[in-house]
Write a structure and sequence with these properties.
mainly alpha
Length: about 100
């Protein structure tokens, strides 16, 4: 998964001044698109496995909206989601998986 990302940095350093060349630009764009495709291919199965019930879906949607609407750090979203999940599971509203 991280191979294209690790390749892009040395490629950019190697090409340096040739970045304005259309062929070089298209090769770099292809590597970036391939990286995005690999990331999406890894994220979809993780999402299917992780979103198992209405609570997890609600937490995911809330975090996504917060990510788009605010400049809140993702660490706080992760901690908030953990607190909500643990609270609901301790109350008995959601079974621990």
């Amino acid at each position: 998964m991280i191979t294209p990302a690790l390749l892009i940095i040395p490629m950019v350093h190697f090409v340096g001044r040739k970045m304005e060349n259309p062929r070089v630009k298209s090769v770099l764009q292809t590597v970036v698109i391939a990286s995005a495709g690999l990331l999406l291919a890894a994220a979809i199965p993780l999402g299917r496995d992780g979103l198992t019930g209405p609570v997890t879906v609600a937490i995911a949607i809330t975090c996504f909206v917060l990510l788009l609407a605010t400049k809140l750090d993702t660490l706080w979203m992760i901690l908030g989601a953990a607190v909500v999940s643990l609270t609901l599971s301790s109350v008995g509203l959601v079974a621990l998986i």
